């Protein structure tokens, strides 16, 4: 499952530098997460760092339109890191 930044985002820029995959960038009005690059930090950390540093409760949630298993997320991690 990729993560999704909701419209609760205050554009504090805490999440962007914490993403190990470079999946977070500024969108038209708030930060956005590229679902093709988001692995929920699988392969890097135990839990998503963007959620850990976000000062707004429930601002970064599971993206219901991009549901993936843990195996799929780990496979994506391997591809992104060039380990395949």
Automatic annotation (TrEMBL):
Signal peptide: none
Organism domain of life: Bacteria
GO MF annotation list: 4 iron, 4 sulfur cluster binding; metal ion binding
Domain 4Fe-4S ferredoxin-type: 1-29
InterPro entries, sorted: 4Fe4S_Fe-S-bd (IPR017896), 4Fe4S_Fe_S_CS (IPR017900), PSI_iron-sulfur_center (IPR050157), YfhL-like (IPR047927)
Record bears the keyword Iron: yes
Entry GO terms, CC: cytoplasm
UniProt keyword list: 4Fe-4S, Electron transport, Iron, Iron-sulfur, Metal-binding, Repeat, Transport
Name by which UniProt lists this protein: Ferredoxin
């Amino acid at each position: 499952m990729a993560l999704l930044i909701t419209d609760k985002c205050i554009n504090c820029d805490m999440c962007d530098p914490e993403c190990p995959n470079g999946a977070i960038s500024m969108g038209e009005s708030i930060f956005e997460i590229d679902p093709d690059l988001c692995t929920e930090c699988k392969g890097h950390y135990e839990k998503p760092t963007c959620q850990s540093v976000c000062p707004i409760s429930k601002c970064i949630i599971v993206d219901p339109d991009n549901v993936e298993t843990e195996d799929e997320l780990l496979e994506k991690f391997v591809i992104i890191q060039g380990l395949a």
